[in-house]
Amino acid sequence: MQKRIVNGVDEGVKAMQRGIDFDLIGIGFGPSNLALGVRLAEAGGAVAAKHCFIEQQPTFGWHKGMLLESCRMQISFLKDLVTMRDPTSRFSFINYLFERGRLPEFINVKSFYPTRQEFHDYLAWAASKIESHVQYGETVSTVLPVFSKDLPQQVMALEVVSHDAAGRTLRRVARALSIGLGGIKHIPSPFNDIDSPRMVHSSQYLTCIDRLIIESASPSKRVRVAVIGSGQSAAEVFVDLTRRYAHVDASLIMRSPALKPADDSAFVNEIFDPNFTDVMYQQSPEKRKWLTSRFRDTNYAVVDKALIDVIYNILYQQKVAAYSPHRVMTNAHVEAVTIDREEQTVQPDRQDRQNQSHRITLKILDSLHGHRYAECFDVVVLATGYSRDAHLKLLQPLSAVLGDDLADAVVTRDYRLPTPKDFLPRIYLQGACEESHGLSDTLLSVLAIRADDIAASLEEMWSLPRCDEEMTEVLFVARSQRPLPIINRNALNVANQVP
């Protein structure tokens, strides 16, 4: 086939006949796309259309690394997947309690805030009810444009390329995408240049901490653990370390002069109400930034007051006992990090790589008094938050056809990425619209209503005139890629192995 350039795609292209496999593909299957999946399941009929969700985890999981015992949700159970849009839904938290046989006991607890472990179980329960639409154990690597056969400049659909645990490549084509990748762990400088098996993000805390403590343990010394951060996760990890391990010295290190309480008062909490999304979206970019800054202490670098009291009491009781293994280090700005690796005596019960010291030295500036000092730790836990821009890398192959709309665009009110006239598919972003839709966008507060907004937008798109399943498009693939077999569009889970 003759070479040509189409919308900036590599000059060497190959055409491949493809059909539309799905009306919607959801990338990621956390609470956001779960809420959308539930909304589509309840709609039924033509509104639900043909859809699937692709999730890289082998089973449903939501912040598994931070499902600490006794830690409770920070929002009411009524802000579940459905109640704010339909209190009668069978997918509600109350119905979950009923089916689990715990409704009377939960009422007796007299709390609007279930434990994080229980809410995770609720989400997994809901996910199990629509699991026929979910493909677990697949990692989406890229999204490619599908161009029209008759109008080479027109993008008719999107091809989603994923890989499963066996290394097989799978390709699916859809008319719309819902991207709900969640937060990607944020590793700030100077930690982002450090490679150490003893340094982990808080999102991996429960999955790693026992092993790290065992590897660092020695009969002659206590294990020193630093927790970096001043928000809720940092505080929870710090308290858990003081309770979980008798031989650990925990240090909570923060640039802030003190732990600040989250503002969860009634009037302030109205910023998480669904109708505030409209208020936020209608503002100018300057006023949006002002509102976000004004209410930032509801969600960022703040801690529940009850947990602050727990930490203060831990430190006070240490003074009573005249023994202080645990510390809160304020005004502490980490300027540099170094790793000291020293060979230790080989112990038969340890693997070779564990027989090496990985002491982590933090060089710290006391920003209040101006002096510098160094502290050594065996383990460092980074409770440094998340970034919400993972979709940019995923959609990078579309930059030639989207242009500035990809990196700089303000999504529409229905969470849709604005696209050029000749770009017909729709791309919805969930959890990446804080700047335009408000602080609630990255939280659970608007799950139900946002799913309703997106479902309504999809219904409007699906009602537009379209070709039937026999429609054939042309997919232009970069010269370096090999053409793959066509997906059987009548099957939900089809794998085409690349030789």
Please tell me about this protein's structure.
With 499 residues, this protein is α/β, with parallel strands linked by helices. It folds into two domains: 13-183 and 388-478, 3-Layer(bba) Sandwich (FAD/NAD(P)-binding domain), CATH 3.50.50.60; 185-262 and 300-386, FAD/NAD(P)-binding domain. The chain has helices at residues 31-43, 45-48, 93-100, 103-109, 116-129, 205-216, 232-244, 274-281, 285-294, 305-321, 390-394, 399-402, 404-408, 434-437, 447-462, and strands at 13-18, 24-27, 51-55, 134-136, 138-147, 155-164, 169-174, 176-179, 184-185, 199-201, 223-228, 248-253, 327-329, 332-343, 356-366, 372-377, 379-382, 386-387, 426-429, 473-478. Helix 7 (232-244) links the parallel strand 11 (223-228) and strand 12. Helix 1 (31-43) packs across helix 15 (447-462) and helix 7 (232-244) runs parallel beside helix 10 (305-321). It is globular and about 75 Å long. Residues 1-18, 343-355 and 467-499 have low confidence and may be disordered.
